[in-house]
Amino acid sequence: MNRTERFRRVALLMASFLRNLAYLRAFKDVHARIPMDWTRDFWITQGGNCTDIAVLEWCKLFADRADKHHWSRIVADLDAFKPSLLARLGMEEAAYSDYVTSVRRYRDKFVAHLDSDNVMDIPMLDIAERAVFFYHQHLTTQEVSDPLQVFRPLPSSSAELTLYFEHHCRAAAHTYNEVLPPLRTI
After folding, report:
1. pLDDT tens per residue, the chain (186 residues)?
2. Which of 5, 24, 38, 72 is deepest in the core (most CB within 10 A)?
3. For the residues of the chain, what is the DSSP string, one character each?
4. DSSP 33-47
5. Do residues 160 and 167 make contact, with C-beta atoms less than 8 angstroms apart?
6. Whole-structure pTM over 0.70, yes or no?
7. What is the dihedral of CA 60, 61, 65, 67, to 10 degrees?
């Protein structure tokens, strides 16, 4: 696989992460409206699947240094990338490392395997989201000479990535609002 193909695959993982995160956020907004009937399992499973796929995709990009899509195997200037990422996230190295460990732990203990842990600690994905936006911006401004050519039809700029995410948030919210009954008040 050549470098251009790797960039494209990284962009596909980013898009998948953001789509699933968008669907998850829209799901959380309507969670209280999920009916207590035979469809409930469907809705709960759908929300859980979006969480799990987002976590899996993010781990490929940020948590598994051995993965061929991990940022450390993609970016040219390794010494500059991580400090810039931490600065963008507003995190110290130790806090970021703890966050990566928590996301990886959820993936390993509950998504990839069902280990013996009794408590599922689902990670918040706000930091993961900001990391993906940073990584994408880095690729499109510093690594890829022609982002439009490499990423087409995926977002090839930060502005396009934001629109992509917002579009999927709106699409999911629209779908949920069309299908789920309104919240009943007493």
Report:
1. 888 899 999 999 999 999 999 999 998 888 778 878 888 888 889 999 999 999 999 999 999 999 999 999 999 999 999 999 999 999 999 999 999 999 999 998 888 877 777 777 888 999 999 999 999 999 999 998 888 888 989 999 999 999 999 999 999 999 988 887 776 655
2. 24
3. --HHHHHHHHHHHHHHHHHHHHHHHHHHHHGGG--SSTTHHHHHHHHHHHHHHHHHHHIIIII-TTSTTSGGGT-S-HHHHHHHHHHHHT--HHHHHHHHHHHHHHIIIIIS---S-S---PPP-HHHHHHHHHHHHHIIIII-S-HHHHHTTS--SHHHHHHHHHHHHHHHHHHHHHHSPPPP--
4. G--SSTTHHHHHHHH
5. no
6. yes
7. 40
